[in-house]
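Weekly modeling sync, notes
Attendees: S.R. (lead), two postdocs, one rotation student

Agenda item 3: backlog of single-chain predictions. S.R. asked that every request posted to the team notebook include the full sequence so nobody has to chase files. The rotation student volunteered to paste the first one in as an example of the format we agreed on. Action items at the bottom.

Example entry:
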Amino acid sequence: MKIEPFALERWLTAHELNVEYDIGESGIYPLTAGELLDLLPESTRASTLQELLEMRLGYSEARGTLKLRSLLAQSYEGCGPENIVVTTGAIEANFLLFNVLLNAGDHVVAPYPAYQQLYSVPRALGCDVSLWRVRSDDGFRFDLDDLEQLVRPDTRLIVINSPHNPTGAMLDAGELEHVYNLAQSVGAMILSDEAYRWLEVPGGNESPPPMFNLGPAGISVGTFSKPFGLPGLRTGWLAAPTKVAAACWAMRDYVSLSPGKLNDALAALAFEHRDRIFQRNWEIISQNLSTANQWIAEHSSVLSWMAPRGGLLALLRYNLDIASLDLANKLAEEYSVMMAPGSAFGFEHHLRVGIGQEPSVFAAGLEQAGACFTRLQADGIGPVGA
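Predicted structure, as returned to the notebook:
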């Protein structure tokens, strides 16, 4: 399979380990192993640590341990461990599903902008991909009338991502049901990338149910990277009809074979104590959202945004006559601040910002970015089109 370069990941790789202030990060501030173990009651902490230290690091169950699959299944309706496949991040879950569900020539509807995998992999498989573009008028939003125009009698798969990367747009429960009914009307499946499930924002939208809950055409993909602050575990999952899950399990024999045994155990520990993790997330998001709103207000002559209604991401619009890639590179190389260029998502004069960073780092990063904008103005960089 020949696939186009992953533009965003190539750019991130050049800067993400070199900057001091990563405020374009797509996840919540990561937990340490110690912080994860501290979620346990003190009475069981030492014994659990000893069990982990004595774990023999052989191969794990190929589709994830029964314990972890059972825990994950409990977060859906009508779901059992046979519906769950634990994967190497959500990115593997999506990759397996595309390869299982699609053939060359199939018609696919995918969101745009989006995490590039969601449309590049179907294209690489030889599919005819129609892009469901997020509208930027009156704030970023999904337009269901646009989707209806894209769906055809031969549509095989509709891909959605809500809360949306990178705009923060969100489908509500009624809109999700509309998408589901539209897919059913043409016999299509729905792959719902739910990487930002459980990440709620003060003043944002109420979280809708996962797509799996809506019926047999619905598939949900989740991850421990974003809502659990555990990207280093490289652990995700898919919740799908049993035949689809079994086919993905068979496909992963050729990809990664099985999850890491230690990763699986730590993921189960995190899921059992998710309420405390989600409370930590809420505190980080609340503080950073307040900081961002105040900072944007202070720079309102240059900056504006639509705050995320769910998840962690938003596109920050700047009114300066400099390309977003040039600005993002300047921020990273001269100010040690990372915000992803909007051009990577098809939105020029925007930068992607994430509100999941450690709050003091987030605030310092915004201050440095503000110094950059001030310097650009002093150097004669004026408004767009001036």
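Discussion: group reviewed the output briefly. DSSP finds 13 helices and 13 strands in the chain.
Action items: rotation student to repeat for the remaining queue; S.R. to check formatting next week.
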